[in-house]
Structures are given as structure tokens and as C-alpha cells.
Write a structure and sequence with these properties.
Keywords: Phosphoprotein. InterPro entries: CheY-like_superfamily, Sig_transdc_resp-reg_receiver, TCS_response_regulator. Pfam families: Response_reg. There is one protein chain. By secondary structure, the chain is an alpha/beta fold. It has a 5-stranded parallel β-sheet, with helices on both faces. Helix 3 links the parallel strand 3 and strand 4.
């Protein structure tokens, strides 16, 4: 067993199938991770404000009940404690107004939800194995927006 601290990933998504696939894809990546799942943005904010675990990376589904991805993004970005945590927005839509709103709101990356498990694994690898010193938006954005 490694003494390396796990990468703490938070996922807010109301779709059980998408959540299951995310968990399965994460297990395909040779990295020590710890996943915390919330069923919507409000639940995620409750977990964050509880303060027991601090995320290293947050994935937000765009369309969730109670509090959607953009609303949650805005709340996280105004939080002193979490405003610098990288946030990836997941959406079935690539409508320009949505990804522009996400980037203006402080998202590090906007990803169209992939249609295959293999693509999901590839996308997660790109996000999780990224060089910490590199920018989030660049060639990765072009790759992900096109998929």
C-alpha cells in the first residue's frame, strides 16, 4: 500500500448511470484516487461546507436538479476555501452559450459527456494525469470540445 495521499475527486451528477460509468472509468486509471459523489449541486455544497474532506478536483454535471452546474460553480468560486480547486463541467451539450458561461464562471474545463466508455477513460486520464504546472485550457480543450 502506498503512502501517497490519494487524489480527492468530487463528482456532482444526478444520473446514476453516468455516476456508475465515471466510477468504473476512474478504476481504469493507475492512480490513487478517492471519489466523493453528490447527487446535485446543493448536496455537493453541503459536503464541501461540512469540511471533512477537501477536493483536489471537482467534476460538475451541467444539468442537475436543485442546483445546476453553473450555480454550483459560482458558489464554489466565491468560496475562499475552494475557489482555486480545478473544476471540470460535464454536459451533453456543446452549445456555445453554455461553455462560454462555464468559462466566464471560472470553470477550468468544459467537456461534452463522451458517448463511449473508452472516451470517458481517455478524458479522465487527460484530466487526472495532467502536469500540475500546465494550463487547463489549451490543446486539451480543443480535443474535448470536438468529442
Amino acid at each position: 500500500m502506498s503512502n501517497v495521499k490519494p487524489l480527492r475527486i468530487f463528482l456532482a451528477d444526478d444520473d446514476d448511470d453516468d455516476t456508475f460509468l465515471f466510477q468504473e472509468a476512474l478504476e481504469q486509471i493507475p492512480l490513487n484516487t478517492e471519489l466523493t459523489i453528490a447527487g446535485n449541486g446543493m448536496e455537493l455544497m453541503e459536503i464541501l461546507n461540512d469540511g471533512e474532506v477537501e477536493p483536489d478536483l471537482i467534476f460538475l454535471d451541467m444539468n442537475m436538479p436543485v442546483k445546476n452546474g453553473l450555480e454550483c460553480l459560482q458558489e464554489v468560486r466565491t468560496s475562499q476555501k475552494f475557489r482555486n480547486v480545478p473544476i471540470v463541467i460535464l454536459s451533453t451539450s456543446v452549445a456555445q452559450y453554455l461553455w462560454e458561461s462555464a468559462y466566464k464562471g471560472g470553470a477550468n474545463l468544459y467537456i461534452q459527456k463522451p458517448t463511449s466508455f473508452t472516451d470517458l477513460v481517455d478524458i479522465l486520464k487527460k484530466c487526472l494525469l495532467k502536469d500540475p504546472g500546465s494550463k487547463w485550457i489549451s490543446d486539451m480543450e480543443q480535443f474535448l470540445i470536438k468529442n
